[in-house]
Each structure stands twice: as structure tokens, then as C-alpha cells.
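Why do we care about 3D structure at all? Because function follows from shape, and shape follows, mostly, from sequence. That is the central idea of this module. The next example makes it concrete: a single protein chain, its amino acid sequence, and then its structure expressed as C-alpha cells.
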Amino acid sequence: MRTVLNVIWLVFSGIWMALGYAVAGLICFIPIVTIPWGLACFRIARYSLWPFGYRVTDRPDAGIFSGIGNVIWLIVAGIWITIGHITAGIAFCITIIGIPFGIAHFKMIPVSLMPLGREIVPTDANPGYHW
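And the structure:
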């Protein structure tokens, strides 16, 4: 069932979201200082291609710099991306068939709001496995 949901997701949301996150990641690689956000964008782009069967967890080794970086990200881009996920999630949830995809958009809100200090893991993986 995950595969079916992921393929439908890929067609209706995944490709466009992944392209958006990948372009944002490339832009973040232009100034050297923003490379950590670029790497986070590429992680989220991969997650947005195939979200069913994965979840976002906090990294226990994330430090104060992840928190500071998240505040900067929140102000610059995070709030706008989150509004986009909320809007798309509500639009998908209007129909019964779209509810799983709306939930997938809502599931992406924490990582799009504050991406540093997070990791994406399979839902059935051991705690030590991550991307």
C-alpha cells in the first residue's frame, strides 16, 4: 500500500515539491555560509519524493547551532514553506481520497519549519538508522 500511495503522491505533489526543495538547496549552496540549509533542503527533497513509510525524528546530537540555524531558517523561508504545506494539506483533505496526501503534507510541516537537527528514518527502522 505504501508503494501505491507513494506513486500517486509522486505524480500529484512529490515531483513539484522535490524540485522546489532542490532549487532552494542549490541556491543555498551559492553562499558558503548557507550550505547546512542546502543540505537540509536536499534531505527534505528526497523525503518529499517518497514520504510514505518514513518519519522525521530529532537528532539527539544536535546542538545550539542547529537551534540558531532553525530560527534563521524560520524567519527567511520556513514560515512560507509551512504555509504552503498547510494550504496543500487542507486542499487534499477536502476529498476523501486525498486525506492520506493531506496528512503527508501535514507530516512535513515540522521538518520544513525547522530542518536542522532532524533526520528522516523509515517508520520500521532501528533507532540508529538514518539518511
